[in-house]
Amino acid sequence: MKAFRTLEIKQSVFADNDKRADELRVKLKENKVFLLNLMSSPGSGKTTTLTRTIEKLKDELRIGVMEADIDSDVDAKTIAALGVKTIQLHTGGMCHLDADMTFQGLEGLGIKDMDLAILENVGNLVCPAEFDTGAVKNAMILSVPEGEDKPLKYPLMFSVCDVVLINKIDVLPYFDFDMEACRQYILKRNPKAVIIPICARTGEGIEEWCNWLRQEVKAWQA
Amino acid sequence: MHELGVVFHVIKTVEEVAGENNITEIKSVTLEIGEVSTVIEDYLRKCWRWSVEKKSKLLKDTELIVEIIPAVTFCEDCKKTYGTIEHGRICPYCGSPNTYLIAGKEFNIKEIEAR
């Protein structure tokens, strides 16, 4: 019988996913679809923020939404009620979405006839940051009750995000949330981050956020 | 945190390599894991056990070897390096916060022993 030999592989486990993510971006560019990956903790207001965003943009952009959850379709139902294309992705216990799952989700949604695809990632500040989904830009929502120290505790999440929305600013008077310290913590990890304070409930700041999105979609499609 | 997901990636990659090299038996798979990679060895081993028994005939009896890569941080101001686990983000030599990680986030498939 043949002897065992050592085969060097020297491959990063993330390399396979990164390759798929790059392929997905090429496909998105060809089809002129802008994919936004939206991340946050559970309960930070992703679905409410998405609802406000869709209400503002659905007459000017063709929007599709992928709702990723470990189980259930409560969020997908809320979004579908707004009249945009929606698909529910179940991760089956996995804590994040990878580029392959995102690819499948986009095919299910139909990559043609869309300007803006939004992926609502699993509510988690750790794992989604480790895996490139193939999105053109990453956004995350940090809500005031979570505290301004989150960029220090979850540095990777804040360093991969192009834009950070600080949500629930209407409750600022009731929390010891230091907005200036929060900005500094975010910028320390990611000097290029765009930071937009919003309140999805009242609509404050949503216009500025939508303007950022409009510009990014336009730049990607140009 | 996401040990199960990375185990699936490892199995897929190793099976591909085995296919390309006409390998029928794998004695061991060696992974390199950074100290601050967020992957916990104990959980990783449990996920590995479960996954290979369920999903991989080829890897069912393969030994999983884990090599830990120490986390090292570099200080931009005094140009020294230091252990990340002991000292965190602030340089213990000059107190500067302008530091970045140079090793310790890896998660690599290093090699396999096979025939």
Description:
The complex is a heterodimer of chains A (222) and B (115). Chain A contains 9 helices and 8 strands. Chain A has helices at 13-30, 46-57, 74-80, 99-109, 127-130, 150-153, 155-160, 179-189, 206-221, and strands at residues 5-12, 34-40, 63-69, 85-90, 116-120, 137-143, 163-167, 194-197. Chain A has a 7-stranded parallel β-sheet with strand order 4-3-5-2-6-7-8, with helices on both faces. In chain A, helix 3 links the parallel strand 3 (63-69) and strand 4 (85-90). Chain A is globular, with a radius of gyration of 18 Å. Chain A starts with a strand and ends with a helix. The model of chain A has no long low-confidence stretch (mean pLDDT 92). By secondary structure, chain B is α+β, with helices and mostly antiparallel strands. Chain B has one domain (3-114): hypothetical protein PF0899 fold, CATH 3.30.2320.80. Chain B has helices spanning 3-20, 41-55, 84-87, and strands spanning 26-34, 63-69, 72-75, 81-83, 99-103, 107-114. Chain B has a 3-stranded mixed β-sheet, covered by helices on one side. The two termini of chain B are 33 Å apart. Classes of the chains: A alpha/beta (222), B alpha+beta (115).
Shape of chain B: elongated
- How much β-strand is present in the residues of chain B? 25-35%
Q: Which CATH first-tier class of chain A would you pick?
A: Alpha Beta
Question: What is the topology, as strand order, of the major beta sheet of chain B?
Answer: 2-1-6
Percentage beta strand of chain A: 15-25%
CATH superfamily of chain A: P-loop containing nucleotide triphosphate hydrolases
Q: Which regions of chain A are unreliable across 5 or more consecutive residues at pLDDT < 50?
A: none
CATH class of chain B: Alpha Beta
Largest sheet of chain B: 3 strands, mixed
SS-based structural class of chain A? alpha/beta
